[in-house]
Amino acid sequence: MSTVKWSPLRELEEMRRDMDRLFEEFLSLSPRRRRGLAGRAESGMIVPNIEMYDARNEIVVKAELPGINKEDIDLTITKDSLILKGEFKREEERKEEEYFINERNYGPFSRTVSLPVEVDSEKARATFKNGILELVIPKREEAKPKEIKIQVA
Hints:
The chain has 153 residues and is of the alpha+beta class.
């Protein structure tokens, strides 16, 4: 029986290869399956996908809420955060064995987002069209960008 010299560098290299393989397997999942994995919080709640951007004097937030009625959406806006709640409901109940494929998520959803600047929640506007909720929230006056002209002497 021969002895093999232990090498910590060899073990680190094997660990790095294992981690590379793990990431490759995850990234090879279809985007829909990745979104399904990332679309649930640890509590099991659905977390809607959002985008938020700065439109100079206001913050615009868009949330994907396909298949939901606007009456089932609850919004709370404070000066520095947005809370989006609601529930995706099934149209009718089916037994699990009746499904061939079921990739849709049902149940309550919640998403709390910190706003990057203080906003004027009283003047916020919301529209809901084709499963996309769009919020336009004006910035507070002190958070708006200021232009200063420089005089050349």
